Amino acid sequence: MGTSDGRVLIIIVIAMVAFFVGRRFQRTRDTWAGWGGAIKDAKTAADKIPKAKADAWAAVRGMLVVGVVVLIFFAVVVNALRYG
User: Fold this and answer.
1) Which of 6, 12, 44, 49 has its CA 20 to 30 A from that of 35?
2) What is the three-state SS of 32-77?
3) Under 8 Å CB-to-CB from 1, ≥6 apart: which residues?
4) What is the phi/psi pair of residue 2, to 5°?
5) CA gap 76, 20 in Å, rounded
6) H or E element: which one contains 2?
7) Which pLDDT score is estimated for 44?
8) Is the pLDDT of residue 1 over 60?
9) 22: nearest Cα among 34, 14, 32, 11
10) What is the pLDDT of residues 18-70, one digit of tens each?
């Protein structure tokens, strides 16, 4: 191999290494940005949990109240039919 062939080969190897290092750097940056976005999304979701929990319990209490009202209404109707 002559000296010019060796130089071309070294330039090709350096270019390939630079390409692979650049791709790895880009992948690392994208992964880091994705992680930051996931943390923001998790914080937003965590902030919504107390309100969602309160709303769920309010719905359960409301359903229990409706159930009790229906049972009382049913008892009144059954007693009215029995003694009427």
Assistant:
1) 49
2) HHHHHHHHHHHHHHHHHHHHHHHHHHHHHHHHHHHHHHHHHHHHHH
3) 9
4) -80, 175
5) 81
6) none
7) 92
8) no
9) 14
10) 999 999 999 999 998 999 899 999 999 999 999 999 999 999 999 999 999 99
